[in-house]
Amino acid sequence: MQLTGAFALSQGMPSAARAARRAPAPGAAAACAARGGRRAAPPLPRARFAGCSGAPWPAACRRGSPVARATGDSGDIGDAYDNLFRSKVFQSEIAVREFDSITSELRQLSMMATKFAEFDVTGKQMYLDKMRASCERYRIFMKRLELSDDPAAREYLRATNAQMLEGGFTLAAMFQGLEASLSQYEAIVRQEEAIVGDPVRHQVFTRALKEQWSQSAMGRIDMSYLGRVMDPNVLNRAQRDPEFFKCIREISDDPTPATLQRWIDHPTIGPLVAEMFKAMMSRSMGS
């Protein structure tokens, strides 16, 4: 399970109160799912979206793709996001507070995720419990949008699903993948609980888990660095580009400097990738 998508959600979607006034572009409705590993070491799942035919991140609509033009008369996915924040759903103070609470909690959890493998067994379970609760709150919030009679909310969901379909999945599949991912990590915690009383076996287990985690996008890119340093507008601009999810998918699949270099000169996504490169260097230097 990678949590970079949850970070993108929480960092890119600004406070609903601010958004209702200024209507900036919110973040991508993206989170991560996983598949099980088959190594003798702890079975750290590799990031994967359910229903994605092997793609670990959702592929965004490419430039010129019909999906990029299928977001309604407003023109692009960004307009659907903007209109959502102007909609009657966000005239409710209760909805605004819930939205802000969800995004704030996901932001905090995402910033902690880089060090997940370093937590003790109790800390890992507490973290997963928090993440499960946050994801469920997010799912319920999106369900409320679906059940509302607000045209802007329905257009937002339609546009988001249209964008996700190019990656081979939908919002529903995303939440199914999140559930599967969390269940797999809870299985890892149960494995650790079973051997925590044996210092030798436990040391081997945790060393293997840390090594596998360090090779993942979450382990290589310091999300706390991005949260502290990056201007949210960098992500907001990148998310409006049709290739945003394609970029994130490639980086999650192969989180190496070479992959980042392929995107660093992109006119709108490049500044985000440059910040991710700095976060990768920060993590490698242990800062």
UniProtKB/TrEMBL annotation:
<dbReference type="InterPro" id="IPR014954">
    <property type="entry name" value="DUF1825"/>
</dbReference>
<dbReference type="Pfam" id="PF08855">
    <property type="entry name" value="DUF1825"/>
</dbReference>
<protein>
    <submittedName>
        <fullName>Uncharacterized protein</fullName>
    </submittedName>
</protein>
